[in-house]
């Protein structure tokens, strides 16, 4: 009975992060990297993997240490923990994925101050068990990933007329490939796509009206 209850709570927190409290489409968090890196699917995949790694590891450590971290220094401790995993992530990307590391640029290092990660550490991991913190991290991370992939798919297909993953072209759109709408891979295109998606989700009732 207890295992079933724990499983239900794990699933509830997991689903909440993907749908009910989606970081980008519902809470409007992490918009800076979302706007910056979604010009291509490669960047979106790389940033998503990095955020999931840092979010999961930092949630586990912070939840494990929640009872011994003094209240007065909790935020600096959270930032140090997050920065440690971001440093590991940056070194791994630089060593094994140099093109992706160069493409993501400063936004990889800025994961340290990503409000999604710091927000989950403060609002959830510092108060809940390790198991639930893992569920929360996976839900929020996958929710962020889905948002980035949806946005990058639209921007890349409309802006280039094709879709490629790490150098391999998956398909070309007949008309758009010859005459792509370049604005969609430029900074204004990110605002336009996110605005249209938020309008669509609000119309469908996914995002509730205030």
Explain this structure to me?
The protein is mainly α and 210 residues long. It has one domain (2-204). It has 10 helices and 2 strands, in the order ααααααααββαα. The chain has helices spanning 2-20, 31-37, 41-64, 74-96, 98-104, 106-109, 115-125, 130-160, 174-178, 187-204; strands at 162-165, 168-172. Strands 1-2 form a two-stranded antiparallel sheet. Strand 1 (162-165) and strand 2 form a beta hairpin. Helix 3 crosses helix 4, helix 4 (74-96) crosses helix 5 (98-104) and helix 7 (115-125) runs antiparallel to helix 8 (130-160). The longest helix has 31 residues, at 130-160. The chain is globular.
Q: Could you give the topology of this structure?
A:
Blueprint: H1 2-20, H2 31-37, H3 41-64, H4 74-96, H5 98-104, H6 106-109, H7 115-125, H8 130-160, E1 162-165, E2 168-172, H9 174-178, H10 187-204
Antiparallel strand pairs: 1-2
Helix pairs in contact: 1-8, 3-4, 3-7, 3-8, 4-5, 4-7, 7-8
Characteristic terms for this protein:
globular, 10 helices, mainly alpha, two-stranded antiparallel sheet, 210 residues, 71% helix
Report the C-alpha radius of gyration, rounded. 18 Å
Order of helices and strands: HHHHHHHHEEHH
Strand order of the largest sheet: 1-2
Write down how many β-strands occur, each being a DSSP E stretch of 2 or more residues. Answer: 2
Silhouette: globular
Gap from first CA to last CA: 39 Å
Oligomer: single chain
Q: What's the story with the biggest beta sheet?
A: 2 strands, antiparallel
Overall pLDDT: 88
Secondary structural class? mainly alpha
Proportion of strand residues = under 5%
User: Into how many domains do the coordinates divide?
Assistant: 1
């Amino acid at each position: 009975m207890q295992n079933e209850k724990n499983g239900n709570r794990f699933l509830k927190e997991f689903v909440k992060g993907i749908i009910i409290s989606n970081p980008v489409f519902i809470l409007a968090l992490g918009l800076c990297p979302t706007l910056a890196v979604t010009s291509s699917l490669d960047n979106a995949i790389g940033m998503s993997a990095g955020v999931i790694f840092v979010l999961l590891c930092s949630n586990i450590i912070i939840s494990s240490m929640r009872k011994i971290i003094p209240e007065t220094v909790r935020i600096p401790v959270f930032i140090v923990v997050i920065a440690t995993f971001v440093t590991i992530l940056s070194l791994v990307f630089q060593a094994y994925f140099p093109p992706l590391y160069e493409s993501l640029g400063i936004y990889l290092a800025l994961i340290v101050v990503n409000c999604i990660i710091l927000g989950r550490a403060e609002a959830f991991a510092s108060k809940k068990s390790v198991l639930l913190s893992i569920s929360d991290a996976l839900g929020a991370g996958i929710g962020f990933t889905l948002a980035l992939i949806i946005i990058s798919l639209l921007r890349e297909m409309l802006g280039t007329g094709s879709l490629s993953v790490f150098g391999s072209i998956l398909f070309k759109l007949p008309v758009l490939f010859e005459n792509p709408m370049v604005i969609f891979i430029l900074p204004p295109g990110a605002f336009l796509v996110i605005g249209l998606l938020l309008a669509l989700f609000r119309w469908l009732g996914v995002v509730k009206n205030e």
